[in-house]
Amino acid sequence: MNIFHTHRMTNLEYIVEVRQVKKSFKEVKAVKGVTLSIRPGEYLALLGPNGAGKTTLVEMIEGIQHPDEGEIFIAGKQWKNHQQELHQMIGLSLQETRFMDKLTAYETMRLFASFYKLNSVRVDEVFKLIGLEEKKKAYVDNLSGGQRQRLALGIALLNKPKILLLDEPTTGLDPNARREIWNILLDLKKEKNTSLVLTSHYMEEAEYLCDRIVIMDQGSILAEGTLQEILTLGGGHRSLDELFISLTGRHLYE
Amino acid sequence: MNKITNHQLYRLIAAHFAEIIREPSVIFWGVVFPILMAWGLGIAFTQKGGIQAKLAIVKMVSESDTVRKTKLTDFLIANAVKKDSTYSIDLKNEKLGNAKVTFFETSWSNAFTLLKKGKVSVIIEDKPASSKYYFDPANAEAKVAYQLASGLSELGPVFYAANQSGVEPLTLKGTRYVDFLIPGLLAMGIMMACCWGISYTIIDRRSKKLLRRMVATPMKKSNFLLALITARFTMNVAESLLLFIFAWLYFGTGVQGSWPALMLIFIAGNIAFSGISILISSYTANTEVGNGIINAIVTPMMVVSGVFFSYHNFPDWTIPVIQYLPLTMITDSFRSIFNEGAGLMDVWKEAFVLTTVGTVSFVIGMKIFRWY
User: Fold this and answer.
1) Which residue of A has its CA nearest to B21?
2) Phi-psi region for residue A26, left (φ > 0), alpha (ψ -120 to 50) or beta?
3) Chain B positions in Cβ-Cβ contact with residue A88 (cut-off 8 Å)
4) What pTM was computed for the model?
5) Which helix (H) or strand (E) holds A220?
6) Which residues are CB-neighbours of B328 under 8 A, at least 6 positions away?
7) CA distance A224 to chain B (A)
8) Is the dihedral of CA A241, A244, A245, A249 positive or negative?
9) For an engineered disulfide with B281, which of B63, B155, B202, B358 has Cβ 3.0 to 4.6 Å away?
10) Which residues, in sequence order, are CB contacts of B322 under 8 Å at separation 6+?
């Protein structure tokens, strides 16, 4: 294992490697032996119904949860011994995080920038990137849902992360606000410095943004590949939902 | 790059502080409310007008019946100011303080209503042969009213105006109720500010997943808590100072003991309750549960620790327990410094115990602390 590990560090074919990872909460098996690799610069979508284990998997990659079994390598490193380095390398946005209501967008960004030892120059850059410059002085309380999500995305991008993990970044947003987030992510993709792991409820989001799609259900991976590869699985389907029905007998999103 | 304003500790303190002062209700409950409470209670229990005795008279004879007048009726007709069916007498006495005795002439049933509402404390059944006084002997106010009324009707105004040569009025600083109250309110302020300001903030942030988001960055966890405690402590200093200045200007409350001792207990008290706050907020992510936990800690101490009245009214066996509650230790120490002239040597033990309580709570709290 050790030789393998060293090999991976020099080569870095994969920025994230998840190997046979399992995680249970009391009696519930949230993730049942998942193996997954992500290349540098690759955009990957995790799709699946509620309770499929997407969030748990993402949180294990984020270092917030720890696997019961299996291993996770990020740039060849594990959370156990490299917390500080890995925190510097990843950017994330959790489901339903609420920032402090009575801080302005700018103050919130400055606060998180200080954790990465970044100054106001980078903060201004990020505000430009997320197109929220005119809302700098607004209290978080007074931002719309879309603006809050862009703020959360901006915070995730502060440290120019190698890996960006977004847990349902556009859930509950109107189509315009959703497209604004997509455009920011597409601009980022052109720079080819950042890998993205995105969990989503929207097929078109996965299709529009991601190179590869992973469909999860009940803690396991059901299908994996480009959209075309997945749809041709088992004889050709017109949509992911149709594929999901043929695999499980249930709708992807109910 | 090395500017202090880029440092995470600076940013965290600034963020916590901004959150406190931008919430108008925080300013109200932290600053205005304690001052209102001091003012209200200080006025209510510092009787500048002297004794106020109120009694109901149920007459068994008519006023025009000159033959069968009673002693009390005689006295009232000769000395009282009559308005409608109310007789009032103002009694002046330099040593005992002035007193005002008011008699409401009414029917039996109405007299009982007045008694139940607390508008009178004694009912007099006025009969030619002898007057009967009805009152609750456990009620000190009623006893004074009885003594006054019966004494006056027997001896006339002389009863209260007589020169009490054996009485020497105490006008010492630190013996009024307000002198008892202010140190208690200052101590309670520390407890409330820490338990709500620190505990509730942590639980709320946990429930909003903000703690989880923050520890997914290179932020030092200790800096987060240090900043929260620092911001809260700064606010506590300001709130306590404002309350003290109000009491000093309005009631003339002063510190007879040592200022360094006062500061020592203030700091130790803040350490104690900061630690306790971290401990009680270390686990739950539910703000409703958090509310319950904080109330369960705060309310009993508010009642038994002698903030508003002496805890020596509680049964003897409870006293040793009460005396070692953190709030009691702060209250007692503050009082001895304010009113009894205590110095550093008198309060160092309490300071030590409070600091230890805070530190131990903090360490245990950190061991079980859930960031997500």
Assistant:
1) A102
2) left
3) 218
4) 0.80
5) strand A220-225
6) B301, B304, B305, B306, B311, B322
7) 28
8) negative
9) B202
10) B304, B305, B306, B311, B314, B328
The torsion of the CA quartet B333, B338, B342, B345, rounded to 10 degrees, works out to 50
Note the ipTM here.
0.87
Least confident stretch, A72-76, A179-183, A241-245: A241-245
Q: What is the 8-class DSSP label of residue A139?
A: B
Q: Which residues contact B358 (CB under 8 A, 6 or more apart)?
A: B268, B271, B272, B273, B274, B275, B276
Q: Which amino acid is at B299?
A: T
Give the separation between CA B80 and CA B339, rounded to whole angstroms: 41
Measured from the Cβ of residue B314, the count of other Cβ atoms closer than 10 Å reads 14
Interface size, chain A vs chain B, as Cβ–Cβ contacts under 8 Å: 73
Interface of B with A in 161-200 (CB under 8 A): none
Interface of A to B at Cβ within 8 Å reads: 62-64, 84, 87-88, 90, 92, 94-103, 107-108, 110-120, 139
Which positions in chain A touch B218 (Cβ < 8 Å)? 84, 87-88, 115-116
CATH number of A2-248: 3.40.50.300
3-state SS assignment for residue B109: helix
Count the residues in chain B: 372
Q: What are the pLDDT digits (tens) for B216-248?
A: 999 999 999 999 999 999 999 999 999 999 999
User: Residue A1 CA to chain centroid, in angstroms?
Assistant: 27
pLDDT 10s digits, A1-16: 444 444 444 457 889 9
Domain extents for chain A? 2-248
What is chain B's Cα-based Rg?
A: 28
- Closest CB from A110, A115, A120 relative to B219: A115
Neighbours of B215 (CB within 10 A): 19
Which amino acid is present at A48? G
User: Which chain A residues have a beta carbon less than 8 Å from that of B208?
Assistant: 97-98
Spans of all domains in chain B: 4-44+176-368, 51-161
- Report pLDDT for A8: 45
Give the full edge-to-edge strand order of the sheet including A69-74.
A28-38, A16-25, A69-74
CATH architecture designation of domain B51-161: 3-Layer(aba) Sandwich (3.40)
